[in-house]
Automatic annotation (TrEMBL), chains A, B:
Residue ranges annotated for the MoaB/Mog domain, each copy included: 191-329
Entry GO terms, CC: cytoplasm
InterPro entries: MoaB/Mog-like_dom_sf, MoaB/Mog_dom, MoeA-like, MoeA_C_domain_IV, MoeA_C_domain_IV_sf, MoeA_linker/N, MoeA_linker/N_sf
GO biological process: Mo-molybdopterin cofactor biosynthetic process
Pfam families in the record: MoCF_biosynth, MoeA_C, MoeA_N
Official protein name in the record: Molybdopterin molybdenumtransferase MoeA
UniProt entry keywords in alphabetical sequence: Molybdenum cofactor biosynthesis, Transferase
PANTHER family referenced in this protein's UniProt entry, alphabetically: MOLYBDOPTERIN BIOSYNTHESIS PROTEIN, MOLYBDOPTERIN BIOSYNTHESIS PROTEIN MJ0666-RELATED
Amino acid sequence: MTSTGFYSSLINVDRAIELATSFIRELDIGVEKINVWSGLNRIIAEDIYAERDQPCCLKSYVDGYAVKASDIQGASFSNPVRLFVKGLLKPGESPSKYVLKNGEAVEVYTGSPLPIGSDTVVMYEDVVRDGDYIDVFKTLSVYSNVAQIGEDYRKGDLLVSRRTVLKPQHLAIIASSGLFEISVYEKIRIGLICTGSEVLDKPVNHIDYGVYNSTCILVKNMVEQLGFTEIKYYGTIPDETSIIDKTLSKALSENHVLITCGGAGFSENDVLSRIVDRKGFYVFRGVALRPGKPTSLAILNNKPVFLLSGFPVAAWCGLEAIVIPVIHKLMGVEPAFKPCFKTILKRNVPNVIGYRSYVRVKIYRVKDELYSEPYGLRGSGVLSSLVKTNGFIIIPEDCEGYSEGSIVDTYLY
Amino acid sequence: MTSTGFYSSLINVDRAIELATSFIRELDIGVEKINVWSGLNRIIAEDIYAERDQPCCLKSYVDGYAVKASDIQGASFSNPVRLFVKGLLKPGESPSKYVLKNGEAVEVYTGSPLPIGSDTVVMYEDVVRDGDYIDVFKTLSVYSNVAQIGEDYRKGDLLVSRRTVLKPQHLAIIASSGLFEISVYEKIRIGLICTGSEVLDKPVNHIDYGVYNSTCILVKNMVEQLGFTEIKYYGTIPDETSIIDKTLSKALSENHVLITCGGAGFSENDVLSRIVDRKGFYVFRGVALRPGKPTSLAILNNKPVFLLSGFPVAAWCGLEAIVIPVIHKLMGVEPAFKPCFKTILKRNVPNVIGYRSYVRVKIYRVKDELYSEPYGLRGSGVLSSLVKTNGFIIIPEDCEGYSEGSIVDTYLY
């Protein structure tokens, strides 16, 4: 047996994602109506088109006086133009409240429509008011300080496309168009199961040689940060087939997707794997990924079960490299533009050819240069490596590593 | 009067932040105990130190056999070493269950402690089991496949410092140390008030010349994304002194901070400003910021009131440049490392000397190069400029602008 052992036929990360998205056809996520105010990070299930021009009429960007630009050509400090002030037009009032004739002005506030016949607004500070008159000291071109009709969007424009993850600006533009009830995909219900009789979810007086659960809290919060998921944690279940069986059944019936931490290996202790072998099948078992080699995908009851390592850093990498990209693809959602910026590597980092490696790095700035200090590839259980760093670099499968001083693509957590 | 008018003595952004943090001494935020599982994005109010070494004993990173490295020196395919298997040590069991003598091995699973006397683990795939014996085919050095004592952290190590915004990895490392109840700062309660009689918060059949509220939904969600805030929205209140007065009093008593949108100008319509003049004072009124010039800070009832423009893009900029940095400073929290990456500018962008300008850009990649297409500085009401772009560049006060082809520092929303 070669040293690649049980994982001798490991597939690469791209192939794993490809297999996952072809085996899991869809997640069967419903659609629900919600108020736009509660829509942050939800996935919209409809295209949103503008129902009217925005703005719907000329509006003032400033406080001042609506005028005809032609009336104030040549106006200056030494040669002011006097106009008659017909009245005041407040925001929300109709432009037809006043019809401007030559030599006339109407006072307007920020956001006021422009009265009919006007095309420019002179700011307060460029006029002197004198009873019913103003003296204008400035020449302005047409549409100065004016928001033009449809400047933001036109009736019929696509404002937000279906399957967008709604950020504050999307919610704002939907609301601006007068739409308050929107159709979004239900949150993806993700069941999270931890295996391992030695893993503790509650404090105990004397812990002996067990470990406190850190991987599941990491996974739960990373997945929850997506915003369009709802995590249910089923606790740590001991390595006993009957109990795992029961928890799995319940979790499968209550969720769209399961994620498990630990118990995915090849030993007698890995009860989870034996259940998969008996009741379902593996889409892939292990990936050429460092850390995160045990990351696997099984199908049970026609539902996807992602099996992550019990070690926190390996679980993080499996989520980052496989699970989160697959969830985005299944939902037809563009992942957020992840900035990939260049840093100067402070130490050599080796790679094992054939593996994609995620190297945690501390990114820092000295003068105008960004540097990255690698934390090292080793130690998939070393949680402090995620706490002491703030980003990572990815070494592709065909690369033997990077040497100190290389300029590398770097990502933030 | 010069054309800078009412804002003739505008301070710059840095000075505004400085004034804000010196006038608002503290926000008087309490501390509460919560479970670490619900701690995402909260600000921790205590230093967290490790109470024991992690791991607390040698542990196996793999499934296999714990051995003495000295026993298997020289082992190879052609020259295997035979060892007696004394038993199995499961995760959570005590290392003293077995004491290894020369020529002995103990089966271990991933996460198992190493039995006393062993220092190395041979993976399943590097041995052949034969009844109570294994033949080892590989030479390994001491601590191969082994997590060493304190490899993650040592007893007494500072795991997470006070005033850290808790990310998944922080929660995980706190949980790993056996701490489940943590002290965090209460959420900063932020009251949000919209002014403007013409602003609509609910759909109406015929909107005429009013506008639907988009600025407040943008502000609410941007601030909520911080995670350590709790926003209460007081709705749109008409431009009538008595109503604004009453709402302000209520909001001031219920929150640590207020944010208002609109009504901060100098016209008769800007009721809010008149209340500040009567009942409190301005720390600064207007900032040399584009867009977002009206961004102001007042103190009312000893509490900070940030006044933002009613226009969404100007409000966004006021939040990004002033309000959010000030909140971080007041809480003593390091803002998240915001990646600033280099892009090639696709068009000239001018700046008005003395102003700090936030230019929305569409960042995109062509081959290995990142480009940024500016959306233009104009139109603080043009919400679609925030939807069609994905980041921004900042032009400093002393710069006349950037020309096409310049390499510029670029940020993501």
